[in-house]
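Batch queue: ligand-bound targets. Current item pairs a single chain with flavin-adenine dinucleotide. No template structures supplied; prediction is de novo from sequence plus SMILES. Inputs echoed for audit trail.
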Amino acid sequence: MATRLPPVDVVIIGVGWAGSILAAELSRAGLKVVGLERGGYRGQEQIVMPEAHDQLKYDRRLEHFEDLSRSTITIRNTTDELARPQRRHGPFPWGEGLGGAGFHWAGWTWRHTPPDFKLRSHVIERYGADMIPETSTIQDWPITYDELEPYYDQFEYAIGLSGKAGNIKGQIQAGGNPFEGPRRRDYPNPPLKQCHAGALFEAAANELGYHPFPVPAAQASQPYTNPYGVSMGECVYCGFCMNYGCEVSAKSVPQTTTLPAALDSGNFEVRTNAAVIRINTSGNRATGVTYIDGQGREMEQPADIVALAAFTWSNSQLLMVSGIGEPYDPGTGTGLVGKNYAWHGASVFAPLAYEDGHIFNTFMGTGALGTAICDLQGDNFDHGGLGFVGGNILCAMQMSGGPLGPFTVPTPPGTPGWGGEWKKAIAHYYNRMTWFVGIHDHLAYRGNYLSLDPNYRDKFGNPLIRLTYDIGPNEQKLSQYMVAKCEEIAKAMKPSAHAVYGLPPRFDGGAAYGIVHQVGGAMCGESPADSVVNKYMQSWDVPNLFVVGASAFPQIPAFNPTGTVGALAYLAADAIKTRYVNSPGPLVDA
Ligand SMILES: Cc1cc2nc3c(=O)[nH]c(=O)nc-3n(C[C@H](O)[C@H](O)[C@H](O)COP(=O)(O)OP(=O)(O)OC[C@H]3O[C@@H](n4cnc5c(N)ncnc54)[C@H](O)[C@@H]3O)c2cc1C
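Prediction returned. C-alpha cells below.
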C-alpha cells in the first residue's frame, strides 16, 4: 500500500536537463514543484580533486551512468529476433542521478535548422516523394524554427553557451555557421580557444571551399552569470569533461545553471533515489505518480500537473506501463507510443597520424572543443542523383585527453588492436594523432521502435524497454558518399597516415561507446492521429501530462539534440505557466 503524500502543483519525473529547466521556470512562477530523480544526489560541492579526474571510475566504469543492475534496455535488430538485455553499457550509455546525462555530457550544443522542422514536406517539395525510402515514417514537426527560436535563445543564455553566430536576423556573419537559421543575437560567450586539430581542419576546409566555424560549446569561455543570476567559472581545458563533473563550474550542467535557480525559488523540492514506476490516472487526467523511494517504500505523489522528463527510454516506458496512449505496432502501423525511434552514429570517423612536428597536446581539451562544417549537412548541398537525403555535420574535436578515455588515442590504420605493437603505437602516437567525425541525419523507419519487453523486467517489476533498431538504407548510402568526401578533407589535412571509416553494415548493440543521442517514442505532431504530444509537449490523451525531451523528435537531424531538448523544455514551461494554469485543458492555438 503506497503512502499518500500531500499534493503539489507539479511533479516532475526525472531531474536532468529537461526536468531542471521545468523546475526552474515553474517554481519561479510560483508553482509548488517536486522533482523525482531515480538516481542519487550529485552536487557541485562534491566535485573535488583529484577524485574528480578518476579515469577508471568515470571513463571505464562509467559511474555517472545508469546502474544497469537495476534497470536497462533490451536490444534486437529486427522484430523476428529475441532482444537481449544490455548488461554493460554499449554504444550509447545514458544518464542517471541529479542532473541526468546533463551532468556528464560533452556539451556540443546545436540548434536544428529551419528545414529540419519540415523534413518530409521539404524533401517532397524539392526532390519528390520517391526520394523518401518506402519504409521511412519521417514527418514534419508541428513547430517551426521561428517559433522555437526565442526558446533556443533562452536556453543558450541560461547555459552560457560559447560560440560564434553565423546568422543574426538574416545577416550572415563571417566566421560562424552560414547554414544556421537566423538567431536574434550572438552567443552569450565567445568561442573557446581553437585547438591544433581544429586549425588543421579549418585550413583544409577553407582550401576545399567549405565554411568552418567553432563548435557551439557548453563550456564557458569566460566567467559568466546567467539571467537567473547563477555564476559559472571559465573553462581551463583540463581534458576531463565528457563523463565527468566539472570542478571549476565551467561546464554548463543543470547544477551550474538551472538547478540553483529552482532551489533558490523556495518552491522546489528535489527527491533523489525516487524511481517513478507509474503515472496514475483517472479518466483522462493524471492524478500524480507512484514511486519507490531509497528505502524501498512505495510512495504516491499527487499533483495537478505531471511532467515526464525521464529521457527517451523511460518516457516511453512510463507511458506504456501506465496505459497512456496506444503502443505502436510495426506490423499494423497502428499506435504511436514507441514509434519513430531514431539515433545517429558516426557516419564517418577519420583518424589522422602525423610524424613531422605536429604535437596536439591531447592531454588538454574540453567536451565540445572543435571546429566544424555544415556544408554537407541536411540539404545544404544538391542531392539530385545521389539517391539519399540528408548528410552530416563534420567536426574535428579535442574532447578529453586521458589515456583511458573513450575517444582519446586512435592509432594509425594497420596497427594491431592489442599487444606489444599496439602499446608502442599508443606511446608514439598519443600526442601525434587527431581525428574528425561526421554525425548524420537519420530518418525514422517503420521497423525502428520502442516497446515493452515481454521477457525482462527492471528491479521495480516493470517490463524493460525493448529497442528494435537497425541502420536504414538511406543512412548507408549517405555514409558511403560521406566517406568519399571525407577522404578529400583528410588528405587536405596532410597527415602521414589516415583512414576514413563509414557506418557498419548492421547496428551492433554490443559495440563500443559511440554517440549518445536517442530520440522518439513520444513524438510531437499536428494531431492525435500522428503523434503522442502536441507542439507544447502536452499529451493528446491526458492534457495535464507534459512529456518533455528528445522523445518528442519525429526523427533526428545530424545535430546533437540537447540544444533542441532545452528549447522544447522552455517552450513547454512557458505554455504551462502562461496558458495551462490559467485555463487547464488541451492547449489549442487561436
Ligand atoms: C556521455 C554523454 C555525452 C553527451 N554529449 C552530448 C553533447 O555533446 N551534446 C548533446 O546535445 N547531447 C549530448 N548528450 C545527450 C544529452 O545528455 C541529453 O540529450 C540530455 O541530457 C537529455 O536531457 P533529458 O533531461 O531529457 O535527460 P537526462 O538528462 O538523461 O535526464 C533524465 C533523468 O531522468 C531520470 N529518470 C529516468 N527514469 C526515471 C524514473 N522512472 N523515475 C525517476 N527518474 C527517472 C534519469 O535518472 C535522469 O537523471 C550526451 C549524453 C551522454 C550520456
